[in-house]
């Protein structure tokens, strides 16, 4: 049998800092995969290899053992080592492990060498469209970033203290798999919170903790909709919800929104047999009105009659500047057709990634099973920290402080609008939330307006990006919660300047 | 217009501890929804209501304002308040908010009153079957809980210290939305980890951080499979993967496993055009063999030729008791057809909920977009803590310590098997992992064996629960990693006793 000569075994030089064993393993493996050491070839004696490369014989023996365990070599102690004879003959373009970073870069170009591509599925093409900033958000925030709470005002040191205390007090049992439905003490304080602030009759058993409202919509759509089933979307409406419903195969019925929220009668005309309706009843995204009581009752009556599911996404209506927050649609849901979603991403901070659903009793079990299968549960110590933060009253205090602060900023935006935006942007009254729509003159191109604003350092979102079936009114969604009143005024001036130039070509 | 008399407005007594305003609001709202105060009815004067119920007039005005904001009342200051005339006439079985907890319980029975039920979709029926313990796991662990690391040996105080330090050092920018793909410093140390321990040529750009391997399988199946497309499952194989693939609409091809892992030639015969193959190449779940090198190359060749995707779930092969961990299948994936999944749930602790995928370059963007749309990202401070824990070398040290400890426990299980299980359970050699299969006499009912063992306080998982298409050999999966050697021996004795009784009716 052929013994691998020294020429067969030209090894690449060992990179600085790489362990001898890892280097030798990578070189021998590459030589075998590339066919320089063919099937059945006999390897040099371990003693010779060791002497030639200035390594200990133990190192060489370790490498041979590893290659034998992985199937590259066969042989018996004392009788020499051979390249496994059943291997294919050197088709593999294998680089040694020492080449890893270079290979990683090279693989960018490897696209062309694939014989058959891995193509996205039809539904995959719908799923691979994110509504979100996948690269994250810059900090601090800028005028007028929509749906953004003020992170400068978050009681950061307090949160860190609670988290650190929780870490020290953490019971070892908190390392084990937790309940898929969520940490029970957290579910209890959330149930109490929505009972008091939203009038929702519920207990901890109806609450499920997840990472985001998107997960609730995604799971609910898959659980209770088959591909091709119709779902009502508010039009204009929240893009994140629409994309995830479409990815789940829903046929979207675009139901118009007016000053009383989603037009339920029109929904019944367009898609009476829809299986699901997605609504932002507390503060319609993006236009702002609360769903009227009459329509709330009509929506529930339709859902009840048809056996349809309503998802109420209550993303920021906690921040209501006059009076208490409105009761949730869910508070009227006696027959159990509404899944209510709340999130701490806007109440506290986005990187927290804890949201929750309040489910009708008979939907809890399938929802939790599906969540357990696909997501398992939210990290337990994160849930425990949030529980302590709520139970100690910090969330309530923070929300009250922010409600006042955001109210002042909403007023500052109104002021700035009066001062700078006449003839450019019309700002309706702001009663709640973190952002507000402002309307451009009829016929203006709001996507263009958002682009020229972005070039001047102003973040907005055009209303056209919320369009579902019908054209949305031309306008921009403006966040006012995450920046100070001076920045609001300065941003409003800048925005006026670029809109003036765009609209009147000055 | 009719003025609501005092008789019309019989209010329930205020529960102890409930705020006056919340009580009065709930009572009036219920009276309207139940029709006791009909559409157009005039409410008592605020002054009279205040006097009658011993509350301030300000409280009554606040309640009227809230009810007006929510659409229950209309009217103008000084001219009285009326129930909104467009409301339906008292069809709603509304309880006041003060009844919330009672209502929550009552709703369990509301199922029968629904006019039309919300039925699970066809795919929902597949999605609502969890493979996991939705109620969490008891602590401490018991003999022989499968796939369970030892939480007693986890350096708990050290983790808490790192987490507390991270909390104190946390930058305020870490409150904002992070990168959907994951915290970059964490992705960098993970890339380094899999380069060194698994021979995978990759960089941080190829790594995506998620909450669990289940999420990787779920997203990959939806992105690259359409409903009805075939997917290879190892048979017997991991139930969690099979259920989530089925829920995504995959047609499962049950490919047999032998001593060399999944039978690739048989897979090619059964479903040559499959779009996806799920493999546990490092340590086949549940039978244990590593996928042979010849089959690894054949699998990659098939995937390359057909444009299929391979998911390599490397759940616990890090714990290899002799020699280094084997290189991953992914280390041979030059053409970019393998998604490698790793998890920290078994390496560190299950409640952590951080896993990762190493993706071929051209699959990164659609995967991250889909993850961003459905899950957004993993909590940022959790990622930062894990990053610090890895970067400071604690993970490496912990894995080395646990490898030794689990090796001793595997040996203790072998010892116990020799002592107690002759004629009852055959235990093949254990080379890696947290659990091992043991085989019952041919023809034995392993599901029954698992049940009788459970009655005696012994946790196992029958091999039949891993069956995909063919009957699995009769046997039990036994975890040895999470309990001490004394408990292993005692558990083995108990298991022998119940199996003896079951098999030989003694």
Automatic annotation (TrEMBL), chains A, B:
Transmembrane parts of this sequence: none
Top-level taxon in the UniProt lineage: Bacteria
An example molecular function term from Gene Ontology annotations: transaminase activity
Keywords: Aminotransferase, DNA-binding, Pyridoxal phosphate, Transcription, Transcription regulation, Transferase
Gene3D superfamilies registered for this protein in UniProt: Type I PLP-dependent aspartate aminotransferase-like (Major domain), Winged helix-like DNA-binding domain superfamily/Winged helix DNA-binding domain
Protein's name in the database: Transcriptional regulator, GntR family with aminotransferase domain
Annotated Pfam families: Aminotran_1_2 (PF00155), GntR (PF00392)
């Amino acid at each position: 049998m052929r013994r691998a000569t020294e020429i067969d075994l030209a090894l690449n030089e060992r990179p600085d800092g790489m362990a001898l064993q890892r280097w030798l393993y990578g070189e021998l493996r590459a030589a075998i995969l590339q066919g320089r050491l063919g099937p059945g070839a006999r390897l040099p004696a371990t003693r010779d290899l060791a002497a030639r490369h200035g390594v200990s014989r133990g190192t060489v023996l370790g490498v041979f053992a590893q290659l034998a365990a992985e199937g590259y070599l066969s042989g018996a102690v004392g009788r020499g080592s051979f390249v496994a004879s059943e291997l294919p003959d050197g088709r593999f373009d294998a680089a040694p492990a020492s080449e890893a970073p270079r290979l990683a870069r090279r693989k960018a170009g490897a696209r062309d060498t694939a014989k058959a591509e891995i193509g996205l599925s039809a539904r995959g093409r719908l799923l691979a469209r994110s509504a979100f900033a996948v690269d994250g958000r810059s900090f601090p925030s800028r005028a007028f970033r929509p749906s953004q709470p003020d992170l400068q005002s978050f009681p950061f040191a307090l949160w860190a203290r609670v988290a650190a205390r929780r870490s020290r007090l953490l019971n070892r049992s908190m390392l084990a798999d937790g309940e898929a439905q969520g940490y029970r003490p957290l579910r209890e304080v959330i149930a109490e919170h929505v009972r008091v602030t939203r009038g929702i009759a519920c207990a901890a058993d109806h609450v499920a903790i997840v990472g985001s409202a998107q997960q609730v919509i995604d799971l609910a759509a898959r659980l209770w909709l088959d591909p091709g089933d119709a779902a009502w979307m508010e039009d204009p409406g929240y893009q994140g919800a629409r994309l995830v419903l479409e990815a789940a195969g829903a046929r979207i019925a675009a139901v118009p929104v007016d000053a009383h929220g989603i037009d339920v009668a029109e929904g019944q005309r367009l898609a009476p047999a829809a299986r699901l309706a997605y609504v932002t009843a507390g503060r319609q995204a993006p236009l702002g009105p609360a769903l009227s009581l009459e329509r709330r009752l009509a929506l529930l009556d339709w859902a009840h009659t048809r056996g349809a599911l309503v998802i109420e996404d209550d993303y920021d209506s906690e921040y209501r500047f006059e009076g208490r927050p409105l009761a949730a649609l869910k508070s009227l849901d006696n027959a159990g057709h509404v899944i209510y979603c709340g999130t701490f991403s806007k109440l506290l901070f986005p990187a927290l990634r804890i949201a929750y659903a309040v489910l009708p009793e008979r939907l809890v079990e399938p929802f939790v099973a599906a969540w357990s299968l696909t997501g398992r549960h939210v990290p337990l110590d994160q849930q425990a920290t949030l529980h302590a933060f709520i139970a100690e009253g910090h969330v309530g205090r923070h929300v009250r402080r922010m409600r006042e602060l955001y109210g002042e900023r909403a007023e500052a935006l109104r002021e700035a609008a009066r001062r700078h935006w006449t003839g450019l942007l019309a700002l309706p009254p702001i009663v709640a939330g973190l952002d507000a729509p402002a309307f451009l003159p009829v016929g203006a191109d709001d996507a263009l307006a958002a682009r020229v604003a972005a070039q001047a350092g102003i973040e907005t979102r055009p209303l056209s990006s919320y369009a579902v079936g019908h054209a949305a009114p031309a306008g921009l969604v403006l966040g006012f919660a995450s920046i100070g009143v001076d920045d609001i005024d300065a941003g409003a001036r800048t925005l006026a300047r670029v809109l003036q130039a765009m609209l009147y070509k000055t």
